Amino acid sequence: MLKDQTMSVVVDGSPLKAMQSSHSHTAQSALSAQELSQEIKSFISGVDTVQGRKLSVREHARCAVRLLRSVPACRGVVLEHLRGVYDEHVSAFLHNLETESDASSGVSSNLEDIIQEVHGVLSEFICLNPRAWAPLVSTWAVDLLGQLSSKHAGRRVAPHSSSLNELLQLWMSCAATRSLMEAYSQCLAAMLAWCPDACVDALLDTSVQHSPHFDWVVAHIGSAFPGTIISRVLACGLKDFCSHGAKDQGLIVMVGDKGSRVPKIGSVVGILGHLAVHHSDSIRKELLRMFQESLIPSSPLSPTSSSTSWESSPQLRRAAVPFLLQLAAMSPNLFGAVSAELVELLRPPVLLQLQVLLQGLPREELDNMLGLAVHLISQSPSGGSRVLRFLADTATPASVIISGPTPSPHEGVREGCDRLLQMLLLHLHKLVFNRSDGAEVSSHHPASSQPKRVIPFLEELQSHVSELCAETLRLERKRHLWLHQLLCLLSVYGGPSVATEAFCQLLTQAHNPEELALAWQLHTTLSSCMAGLIPAAITRCVAQIHTHTLGPRQLRQLLLNLAAAIQSQDEERRGAAGVQSSMAIQVGSAVSGHLHDFGPLLLHGDSAVSHATVRLLSCSPLPRASSPAHLLLLSRAAVTHFFMALRRRVEGGKVGRDGGQAGEAVNCSVLLLSRLAAYSPLTLKAVLQQLVEGALHRGNAGLFGGQIADMSGAPLPAPSLSPDIGASLLDINCRFGTIVNFSGSVWSVFHAGVIGKGLKVRTDTPLPDPSGVMQNVQTLLTVVVQCCSSSGLNGSINSSRPPSDPDEPLPINAEAAKVIAVTMVENVCPDVANGELSWPPEEHARTTVERDIHIRRCFEAHPVLFPLLQVVAAGRPALCYCSAVLRGLLATLLAHWEAARETLSTDYPWHLQASCLLVSCMGEGQLLPPVLANVHEAFPHLTPFEVRLLLLAVWEYVRGNGPMPQKFVFSSEKGLFCRDFSRDGDVARYVAPIHSVLHKNIDRLGHLCWRFQL
Amino acid sequence: MGDIRQSLLPRDVLSAAKELLYHLDIYICNMVQSGRQPPQVDSKTQELVEEFILHAPKDRNTPARRMSALQELQLLEIMCSCFQEQSRDTVRQLMFSALFSLQGNQADESRMALLGKLVSMAIAVGRVPILECAATWLQRTHRVYCVRLAQVLVDDYCSMVPGSGPTLQNIHNASPRFCCQFITAVTTLYDLTTEELTPPLELLQMIVSWIQDDPGLVLINFLNTALSGNQPISSLDVTPLGGLVRWCVKAPLAYRRDKKAGLTNGTAEGEPEVGPLFSALHLSVLQVLMLLPNILNEKGLYGCLALLQMESLAALTSDLSRLLDQADKHTHTSSSTDARGLSQLALDRLAQALQVAMANGALLCSREDLRAICSRLPHNNLLQLVLSGPVLYYNNIHTPPLAFSPHAAHSPIASHPTHPAHTPLATHPSSHPQYPAQPFMAGMPFPFRPSH
């Protein structure tokens, strides 16, 4: 249907062919004056004057072409006539499409050849004399194109004007419009050399007149001549803008009426918008070039000035910046293209030039520009953060101390930026609060809800909240005020999510109280319009913790900040009534709701984090109700952390660095544990149990002076059995007694070494620093005592009654002590057999030798057991539950003293000490009456055998008067359980050996006699 | 005549114009028959023409009616046949001037536009009466407008429509008077100062062939016009001689400049050389000048009428000296022999033209005057001879007549024949003011240069 081969004459731009054909044609049709006269008459009347019949459209057009060739005066009328022909063809073409019939294609092809002919003639003329013909034809073609496209825009087959590509396709498949387009392109190509403005002007005018149906033309032309069209279009727009004056336009745009009064700039925007699809790069370059060249002080011989030479007119140069602003205001596309790089361009020298340029403008124009710029920034969909940073950098006063990324510009520039920034904030403020009003209304009337007004600038900044926060927290002079204000606006704009994020960021990034105060300020501002900010923020922080998005430093800072927030509450309670009271409480309650989420952080690999966590947890209130699982986890973590803290303190003490912090961590940990223990019986139990277990744990034993003894001699299941399948048989055989486990039975076999090689070598671990051990043991005891004495049954720490006498230690809670006791037994005495409370006759002890040895070794390995035993003893009647341990220890001691060959008990310091402690504990725990309990005082002065005698007496007593908890009664006046020994059997018969020993050694023990009076 | 306005108003544009033409025809016929003097249309009629034919806006609040291009063509066609059919020259002439003589108002623009189209069309379709009328119009109208008309025609036939040159060529046969006036206008328009003001080659060829074929063509208006004192001020020259002399003299320098520009562009290939054309033209001009004495004597004007104006010669020499200066500057770098040859050619042609014109009574001045206006020109043997004039042999031995030029001191003695009878200094008391040594302002604007 389309005759591409004929069209190609012009398409491939070979004017030679066209010229040849036309020349031959001219030769044929050299008409005489007479004939020409006839021809004119025929043309005018539309009737063949010779034959007297009506001319067909085709013949008429032929006639016109002949006139065009031979009568110069007729060119205007011929071109006008040809409009009709082209129109006819377009109509036929569209009709064809509409009816989709190929039958009538003859009509269109009829006219198509005439259009080819016309096109050939025109392009020949243009080739021969572009100066004369190009302006004429280009105007004609553009005008006709405009006319055709608007006229036929409503046709059924014509696509909607918005679908530019389809339009382009349609019109380019029509011979008439294609030919016009080509003619125009040819003219343009010719004219660009000498008067580009004229043809672009015509294009713009037509575009205005026939918009939007004409857009396809502009798009096509633009993509054919992108470089020139863009700069020309801009230059035209600038000239027009300059002549119209920029003032009223600014107002129009601000009102929202888009440039209906200013024709050119509207079409400039439209055209550039079309071109932006494929040529956004060159558009951007062109716009930026315009900006830059407008700034260069006018020099008469600018090497870059092209033929447009708008650069040479100072007036136009001055108008360039307002023009670009205006352009940007009207087209988000263009603005988006430019804004990103524009900021990069605004280096100090450029700013100075800009200032010089703008100084010349009248005040109200400047105000308009300022308003426009503010409007633009607030509407900019991308690069907002860069713009903001630039503005803030530039507007920040120069300072010796803080040097921004850019060297400080001129003071005038700085003030300008300052003003711009403030205007921007004001503008955003208006926008945000008007908008939220609307949102409220819509929430009241959901039916009439209108879409929220979007503020692209804020929209974009939402993703930069963290950077904003970081900038704000730098607390530089004015900058943080601006940014803080912006953060508030952003929070209000973005709603709870953004507010939460901002708040979170501030909490995470603040490093000192001043910075943290910004967060409170933000909260104060937002609290009026946003509820539940703090809980949401805390939840968010927790979420961040869970997702590990925070680095250790940030995490630590966050925790510390939260702790500081909660502690401010305490301070406030002490009398300093602050604004933060409600907030601190809120933070506290919010944190308390998430304690179990913070718990795992206690065990964070980074000591700083765990320290911060313990700080937070130790000061945060405990939740009213919490699930046992959470509590158990938390307490487990807390205990583990406690030991970690202890270890760190030891290490820190060695290194000497951050010992203070480690100490503080221990203190916090102690506080946390005691509060946890006080929280509920469950936690109390858990904490104590784990404390004891932890203290006895291999890893922690060293802290408390324990030595990890090689227990392989004890009937513990050998851990190396299963993995050692491949070990040598000899090796296994050497491990005597490991094949068959006789543990617990009478036939237990010791494996204390290979005969002939002496005892097995104990691994010697270096003894830890005794003072450190002392301190650790003290700390542990403090914790345990605090836990036990905090009367956990009474509930939280808040309701604990203050001790009447601070020097008087609180009584140890019996339940708590029982927990310790039970735990100790479990850990020290692995064999549940013979675990009953009541004691058998001493001879029976030989059945439990192995177990007893294990128990003794435990005590040897863990010196901390004795102090714990003392605590248990203090919590009567808990010591009863340690019966098995006591018995085992006592049995081994008896065996030791029996076998001891030295003359003095002091030759066996450990055993002596153990015996003393054991007896004193039993006395404290009221397992023994005072008379018997005091025997330990005599031990150091006795021989081993005598010691054994006394211990045997002790055994005998306990066997006779079993350590039963039910023998204890609660005495309310003491607040303690007490045992009434009078109800037990006569003590006297157990005292006899004591007295014998006294008599034997009366020279040394005289001073102790009174201790053993009944 | 004024009362028909009311009847014209309701008509459409074309028929109103048609009707007015019809009435105008009748009105002028009546006027001629009644023998009223002076035969001129009154201002009422003029207004009607402006309103209904030229469509000048009558006043602010009524928008001017406009014709479509087709209507305009129809009107032109009607005018063509109207003038064609009018048998009486006087009526036709009066009618033409009623339509197209300039009134100095804002209708003149549309008048000129319409005139341009009409003449262009008349050339195309060979309407001799219109061309005759246009020739008269060209004689009476201010040269600015004449030049504009010439410009329109040149654009139409020499640049816009390729292959239409022969049509224009025909005007020589159709209307020699128009052709002559056209040459005058064209030579006035194209003064070879810039590239834009250089005649198109086609036009040049045409003019050369016209004059070669019929040298008398140049003088035809001079012959046909009864020269009275009422020659309109600032109209075109009576003959194109002055313009042609300027062309011939300046051509070597002007075209060299063009050629240089063309060479840098690399587009001057294949262009026919213009040098021979100008040589031929120069010869023709000299021949025409030689024809003059007889004609002038016949008319009794010999020695009374200067066909070459002293002022235009002065302007020419100053232009020429400027061009030569420029050429000197450029020849420092380029091949100087060629350049010097061209300069000498220009000066030779000037000298020849001056001599022949003076000898044939076309230029009325003393040699003193000539020396004054030629004092800035560089040395040229022929010019030296012309300026020194017929010198007696014995006089030469002692002192050269006037040492007006440093080059003159060693000039050879004039040896070419002079007219012993012709002693213009004696017969004519110098009617021209004495020219100062430098009376020309080089930057003086050409007042009717087309403004594009």
Summarize the biggest pleated sheet of chain B.
none
Instruction: Describe the main β-sheet of chain A briefly.
Output: 2 strands, antiparallel
Q: Identify the overall geometry of chain A.
A: rod-shaped
The level of helicity of chain B is 55-70%
* Overall strand count of chain A: 2
Q: Give me the number of helical elements of chain A.
A: 45
Terminus-to-terminus distance of chain A: 134 Å
Distance between the termini of chain B: 40 Å
**Which strand order does the major sheet of chain A show?**
1-2
Strand content of chain B is under 5%
* Envelope shape of chain B: elongated
The oligomeric state is heterodimer
Which structural class best describes the helix and strand composition of chain B?
mainly alpha
Structural class of chain A: mainly alpha
Rg of chain B computed from alpha carbons, rounded to a whole number of angstroms: 25 Å
* Rg of chain A, Cα atoms, Å: 50 Å
Unreliable sequence segments of chain A: 1-29, 246-261, 299-308, 400-404, 438-451, 710-724, 792-806
Model regions low in confidence, pLDDT < 50 over at least 5 residues of chain B? 262-270, 392-452
As a percent range, the share of helical residues of chain A equals 55-70%
Describe this structure in words.
The complex is a heterodimer of chains A (1014) and B (452). Chain A is mainly alpha-helical. Among the domains of chain A are: 1-193; 495-606, no CATH class; 622-709 and 770-810; 717-761, no CATH class; 826-1014, no CATH class. Chain A has 45 helices and 2 strands. In chain A, strands 1-2 form a two-stranded antiparallel ribbon. Chain A starts with a helix and ends in a 9-residue tail after the last helix. Helix content of chain B is 61%, strand content 0%. The two termini of chain B are 40 Å apart. The chains are: A mainly alpha (1014), B mainly alpha (452). Chains A and B meet through α3, α4, α5, α6 and α7 of A and α4, α6 and α8 of B. Chain B: Residues 408-436 are annotated as: Disordered.
